[in-house]
Amino acid sequence: MASSSSAVVFSVQGLSKVYRSGEVEVVALHDVSLEVRRSEFIVLLGASGSGKSTLLNILGGLDVPTSGEVRFGAQRLTGASEAELTRYRREHVGFVFQFYNLIPSLTVRENVQLVTDIASNPMDIDEAIDRVGLTPRRDHFPAQLSGGEQQRVAIARAIVKRPDVLLCDEPTGALDVHTGKLVLEAIAGINRELGTTALVITHNAAIAAMADRVIVLGDGRIQRVDSNAHKALPADLVW
After folding, report:
1. Along the chain (239 residues), what's the average pLDDT of each consecutive run of 10 residues?
2. Strands, sheet with 41-45, edge to edge from the N-terminal-most edge strand
3. Is residue 185 within 8 Å of residue 172, measured between CB atoms?
4. 39, 90, 139, 222: least buried by Cβ within 10 Å?
5. Residues 156, 180 contacting (CB under 8 angstroms)
């Protein structure tokens, strides 16, 4: 588990997000405050509509809050320009979503290689592929891969630029139990071996056993934060 003395990666104070459609207002987040420290593995747990994806998108610079402040280290994300947020995402954040968004006409290696063109200090492409256990499949096209393999390509693509943080929104949501564990194993290994801060959204309470901390959201608020003294490995999880 990350030490309490570790550097703060994210500092969030009084974060709120309201979506408006005509006269209708939907409060997605309300007065959320938290800190995330370097090398932590955090699981965001909660039902649909609890605010998990909105929080992750704001941390990743994909959305902006209605009020409150978000900092990435010393950088203030709140009020940053679109160009500044684009640079922040490019240099510091790796995203993994439920759907893989691979380019069908490109091989595994070519899909991963795309990201290295915009990275300042990318990892070796074959190393990134090896870290997710897909070296034998690197010349295959997405249609020749299983869902879990495609998701692991998406993880390799996210980590090849050496991001400081890995933000994962329901990465096992479309997968069966066995395949989901392989994907989680890849994410946990990257967190453990590279020290990459990881935040993973899930509906699945079993995944919480992997985390340093579990942040439970409901109705746009943090309901509680649980700490794990001893993290479980994906293979040990009972879903």
Report:
1. 68 96 91 96 92 96 96 95 95 92 96 90 94 96 95 95 95 85 89 94 81 94 89 64
2. 93-96, 165-169, 197-202, 41-45, 213-218, 221-227
3. no
4. 139
5. no
Task: Give DSSP secondary structure letters for 115-151.
Answer: HHTT-SSPPPHHHHHHHTT-GGGTT--GGGS-HHHHH
Structural domain boundaries in the chain: 37-64+82-236
Tell me how far apart the alpha carbons of residues 76 and 64 are, in angstroms, rounded to a whole number.
12
Q: For residues 138 and 135, what is the distance between their CA atoms, to the nearest angstrom?
A: 5
Query: What's the predicted TM-score (pTM) here?
Result: 0.90
Q: How many helices (H) and strands (E) does the chain have?
A: 6, 10
Q: Which two tokens stand for residue 130?
A: 């090896």
Q: Report the residue count for the chain.
A: 239
Residues 114 and 103: beta-carbon distance below 8 Å = yes
Give the residue among 139, 134, 136, 113 at the shortest CA–CA distance from 182. Answer: 134
CA distance between the termini of the chain: 23
Structure tokens at 69: 């402040």
Fold assignment, 37-64+82-236: Rossmann fold (3.40.50)
State the greatest distance between any 2 C-alpha atoms of the chain, in Å, as a whole number. 54
Beta-carbon-side half-sphere exposure of residue 160 (alpha carbons within 13 Å): 26
